[in-house]
């Protein structure tokens, strides 16, 4: 009997000791597709610092910028195989595995401004279960997304009408942007982001969709002095993702902190991006860049020539068993575009 009481007391003391121990700190490695100098990269630095601060240092996230842990095109595989814990990654690189997430990152002339892009991705993640299911099927969890400023028509010569678009060689990407250029009588040229400057300087392209802050960042103003303020593309871009296994290793309290900070980071990103556009616009004017407006009637004609990207996408998603999610997404998308404007 005395032995039994001793064993019970020993177990109780051990349990008390274990529960009184501080939580072990966890370190998570994030592969990032962007350089540390990008405008929104500062938001990701704030995110990891704030998570560490609010968890008392228990959750430490280390960012490896500019593909420091692997090529962007390899990152989803690295996440799925738990070779890395987190990533700053655009879903547009993986249309086969992430077709729902890819759509807002791909369709031209489908979003007017960054505020719509921010609201859209937020609502899709919270209101369309198919998005979370798609992520889970790939072993990942989205935490928050960045947005980019509108991609305007940046060119070597002024382009303000459809007639001036005929024969223009424009940098594009993906499957949808080339069709937008072709609808205006232009020629689509596929180039990577880092190839735009050289493409202009060597005469490979005459124009490119690009945001004003990226025109400044990549020094495009040196080789293309005209910006026509017609939104050729806008939308959410890279997301910050965590593997399911890394997420499940966090305590419920730490999970709550991560999501709280993620929501704040997404709001912060919108403010940072809008300010970057305002600053860049002034800088570009000082560098000799001229801003133009596109003819309104010609813009409507151009838009009417575009394929019905939404219907095509829903049809494709039906084949994948994701038709309901796509229809939900399109309904939300249309509502956001009709109702959301950026405050002055």
TrEMBL record:
A Pfam family it matches: DctP
GO-annotated biological processes: transmembrane transport
Alphabetized UniProt keyword annotations: Signal
Protein name, per record: TRAP-type C4-dicarboxylate transport system, substrate-binding protein
Signal peptide (residue range): 1-25
